Amino acid sequence: MTPQATTTIIDGKQVAADTRGRIRGEVSAFRDEHGFAPGLATVLVGDDPASHVYVGHKRRDCAEVGMESIHAELPADVAQDELAARLRELGEDPRVNGIILQLPLPDGLDADALIPLIHPDKDVDGLTPVSAGRLVQGREGMVPCTPAGVMELLRHAGAELRGAEAVVVGRSNLVGKPLAHLLLARHATVTVCHSRTRDLAEVCRRADVLVAAVGVPRLVTGEMVKEGAVVIDVGINRVDGKLVGDVDFDSAAPRAGAITPVPGGVGPMTRAMLLANTLEAARLQAAAR
Predict the structure, then answer these.
(1) Residue 214: pLDDT above 50?
(2) Annotation says 250 is catalytic
């Protein structure tokens, strides 16, 4: 089946490009006001090819919008203490407004012990316990990039969240949990589903806004989608050499009012929101000086 004429395909690539364009202008204004450009530090450990590609994209994104890119590259056999010291140094460096520790780390390094060492005001990935606590309490702070990107796509799609029933399939610390809090902050009624949820299909069918972020290819089928719902697919899975989402697009799109494709939906927004977070961190730090 193909999407109905009334189904809106949410173009994450275009929204991300528009977001970068806006940020480029705001970075220029920030530089004019403060005399320096926001700086993003990327910390890359080891020689994982995918990690090198991801960090390369982030550094190019910085260049595109006029941000400074500060890069630290360490060998795979770096000691935990040495990596910890580097994170602390970046936290004290006034040139650095945001810090990214590229994951996964090589064997022998404890990411759970290292992430809390990132200065919470520079935690542009929104992964530290302090950032998570601020989000839960509704305080100002950094929000994980993918949930922030989902919220921007919902805004772009014109989704009315106040009073809406939102269902999030997936409860990860990176996407599901923070997204639930962001939706609550916009006055949605939120249900978080997971592997123990009874009658997942019935719960999903109640959703005005349905977000799939569980990492199971095509888990959400058309029969699980409420007519006219906004469907956001966070999943990226490789099946038979092809990238597919957690939503079966072909069966879900005809029922949805708006839906994101995979690829080209949420993915581009994650990188764009990293830039937005870095700019916001720079603003907060400049205001505190």
Answers:
(1) yes
(2) no
CA dihedral sign, ordered 154, 66, 21, 236: negative
Q: Across 56-173, where does the E strand assignment appear?
A: 68-74, 98-101, 165-169
3-state secondary structure of 276: helix
The catalytic residue among 61, 121, 123, 125 is: 125
pTM over 0.90? The answer is yes
Instruction: Decide: residue 212, CB within 10 A, 0-12 exposed, 13-18 middle, 19+ buried.
Output: buried
pLDDT in tens, 218-233: 999 999 999 999 999 9
Q: How far is the CA of 218 from the CAs of 152, 169, 238, 252, in angstroms? A: 23, 12, 11, 10
Please give the helix or strand (H or E) that residue 44 lies within, else none.
Answer: strand 39-45
Contacts 24+ apart (CB under 8 A), 86-94: 86/43, 87/43, 87/114, 87/117, 87/118, 88/117, 90/41, 90/43, 90/119, 90/122, 91/117, 91/118, 91/119, 91/122, 92/119, 93/41
240 given a catalytic annotation: no
Active site residue 125: yes
Kindly state the helix (H) or strand (E) to which residue 156 belongs, with its residue range.
Answer: helix 145-156
Active-site residue identified among 58, 122, 177, 226: 58
φ and ψ at residue 29, rounded to 5 degrees = -65, -40
Structure tokens belonging to residue 81: 């203490």
Q: Could you tell me which residues are beta bridge partners of residue 258?
A: 8, 230
Q: How far apart are CA 122 and CA 126, in angstroms?
A: 9
